[in-house]
């Protein structure tokens, strides 16, 4: 994990014998302020540059994984990590920082964005069967999400590849609040 982020997580690691937080130096990419390591450090228009910088960490991450030989890895949006983990025989858990409500909203089979791409108009349409009809993106949010791409692959496609290929999905939620969305998300991911 990025060095500054590692420092933030260390106090919460209560299982030092089982969980290793490995520092990764994120290379600088033109257009990003110096010292930027995660998308939380910058505004959304700069997220693709952060993702490009993280893509440059692949050789370092591969060397660390080969040395450590972990049983599984938690990751978020870096789809290139999937191929590496498959190659090394390591299980992987996609940790989604948003809620199952978001997954249920985006990953509807009727969107079929893997075949046709995803437009802002698509994202603004409330999915069929969505449990809560007042949750929807405004036009600015939809335009930003539809426009972000890294290495010629849209951000939404990056996320979807991670969802479809991982061994498990983890999210911060609870059954009492988001169970209809958890169920909808599971159904959508299996049906897409």
Summed up:
This protein is mainly α and 192 residues long.
What is the CATH-assigned architecture? 3-Layer(aba) Sandwich
Topology as a string of helices (H) and strands (E): HHHEHEHHHHEEHEH
Within the CATH hierarchy, at the fold level, what is the topology?
Answer: Rossmann fold
Q: Largest sheet, order of strands side by side?
A: 1-2-5
Radius of gyration equals 17 Å
CATH superfamily: Glycogen Phosphorylase B
Percentage of residues assigned to helices: 40-55%
Largest sheet: 3 strands, parallel
Tally of extended strands? 5
Shape: globular
- What portion of the residues fall into strands of 2 or more residues? 5-15%
Q: Identify the CATH class.
A: Alpha Beta
User: What is the helix tally?
Assistant: 10
- Overall tally of domains: 1
Average residue-wise pLDDT = 77
| First-last Cα distance | 30 Å
Q: Extract low-pLDDT stretches.
A: none
Based on helices, strands and strand pairing, what is the structural class? mainly alpha
